[in-house]
Amino acid sequence: MTQLDYVLVGGGLQNALIAEALCQLRPTATLAVIEQGPALGGNHTWCFHAADVPAKAMPFVEPFVIERWRRQSVRFPELERTLDEPYAALDSASVQRVLGERAARGALTLYLGERAAFVGVKHVELASGARLEAKVVIDARGPELAERKHVLGYQKFLGLELEVEPGSGPSSPVLMDACVEQNDGFRFVYLLPFGRARLLVEDTYFSDTPALDVAALRTGIERYVASRGIVSRNVLREETGVLPLPRRAPLAEVGERGRFRGGYAGGWFHPTTGYSFPLAVRYALTVAESEPLELGARLERLAQRELSNQRFAAWLNRLLFCGVAPANRYSVLERFYRLPVETIRRFYAHQTTALDRTRILCGRPPRGFSLTRLIGERA
Ligand SMILES: Cc1cc2nc3c(=O)[nH]c(=O)nc-3n(C[C@H](O)[C@H](O)[C@H](O)COP(=O)(O)OP(=O)(O)OC[C@H]3O[C@@H](n4cnc5c(N)ncnc54)[C@H](O)[C@@H]3O)c2cc1C
Questions:
Q1: How many angstroms is it from 75 CA to the middle of ligand 1?
Q2: How many angstroms is it from 367 CA to the middle of ligand 1?
Q3: CATH class in words for 151-245
């Protein structure tokens, strides 16, 4: 039996941020990360907006960052806009590299290829039979463990990382190119350039169903890329995601918060975008700044602070999925992207103010909006 200060179950985004935050803010703490896969981080590229990360969290986010951009843009049938908003990316390899180096220096212990068979309040049993005990056990086993009672729709995508002819792709991220056929709900293509010769292209849907026809989406991406004059030479990597989007605030649905369920599994994500980065950062900061004995109360306060934003974002899901016919959903986002940049920034950062909410909801209703559909059909 091993006795530690912290055991982090699941070696994904949430626990990577917690592990690095603990190494920096509590360097004498003993900690272990348990990951069932052969390496940390799975197969992901994660992005965040500069405003998603408060200044005091930046030191533990920074080591993972692999690329930064100074601006981002969106394209809709009746709107093209470039926002001078910094954006950054990290990936599974950077998570493995940073925490692998920490482990090599003895700052933490990695249990890779080890499945947690039982996760208790103060101990974890591994499938291999080992037992770890800790003052704090944080369970962040990812979206598969998330509450699914109130799922309204899905954000799903296939991403292909391409080697492209240098300079044939965009030079900064295109967060949404919605000038594409609108099938299977709101559809857009997301473009993330890494230097001049590498481009991640994600065909993304806000859909009513979780089904992902990977072969068809691959062909769709090839067609899209060619139509934009991007010359693809090789597919370097592929990633998929199917993120359930709830009709209710996920943090209000999670019972037993005393068990420290973090990340997506614990409801710490943005209900409308499915993104968890801003909340994962706040959660990690709270863990690292709290004494183990006060952690429960501090996380409960954080959850209470996030609830009103989550309720608003979950309500927007109802507007998007129930109030507007699938083919017209793009117009909700087109309208959103006409708003002042600070409202857009705070929306992504899960920090909307009352004024932001008024701006988002007031004005001309989106194309194809039906009040009857909103209150009747799926409410
Ligand atoms: C492909 C993809 C891209 C995304 N991109 C972004 C983005 O750009 N920005 C953003 O904010 N959000 C993004 N998201 C949404 C969200 O941030 C991610 O899902 C994020 O990875 C959630 O972090 P997590 O730590 O909760 O779960 P995960 O990162 O999924 O980590 C959970 C880990 O637990 C491990 N695990 C599960 N069960 C066990 C077990 N029994 N024992 C041991 N280990 C176990 C899994 O193998 C996994 O590695 C993306 C999601 C996907 C799927």
A1: 28
A2: 34
A3: alpha beta
Of 7, 9, 13, the residue with max ligand 1 atoms within 8 A of its CB, to mutate for a pocket test, comes to: 13
Kindly report the pTM of this predicted structure: 0.95
For the chain, domain boundaries:
2-148+247-306, 151-245, 308-377
Provide residues with CB under 6 Å of ligand 1: 9-15, 34-37, 42, 44, 46-48, 115-116, 140-143, 239, 241, 243, 263-265, 274-277
* Assigned architecture for domain 2-148+247-306: 3-Layer(bba) Sandwich (3.50)
Q: How far is residue 159 from each of residues 95, 175, 322, 334, 346, measured CA to CA in Å?
A: 19, 13, 27, 22, 26
User: Residues 52-57: contacts with CB within 8 Å, 24+ apart?
Assistant: 52/277, 52/278, 52/281, 52/348, 52/349, 53/277, 53/278, 53/281, 54/281, 54/282, 54/285, 56/285, 57/21, 57/281, 57/282, 57/284, 57/285
Q: How far is the CA of 43 from the centre of ligand 1 (A)?
A: 9
pLDDT digit string (tens) for the chain, length 379 residues: 778 999 999 999 999 999 999 999 999 999 999 999 999 999 999 999 999 999 999 999 999 999 999 999 999 999 999 999 999 999 999 999 999 999 999 999 999 999 999 999 999 999 999 999 999 999 999 988 776 778 899 999 999 999 999 999 999 999 999 999 999 999 999 999 999 999 999 999 999 999 999 999 999 999 999 999 999 999 999 999 999 999 999 998 765 556 899 999 999 999 999 999 999 999 999 999 999 999 999 999 999 999 999 999 999 999 889 888 888 899 999 999 999 999 999 999 999 999 999 999 887 666 666 666 666 655 4
Q: Output the residue whose Cα is nearest ligand 1's atom 41.
A: 116
Closest-CA residue, ligand 1 atom 35, reads 10
Query: Which stretch of DSSP H or E encloses residue 19?
Result: helix 13-25
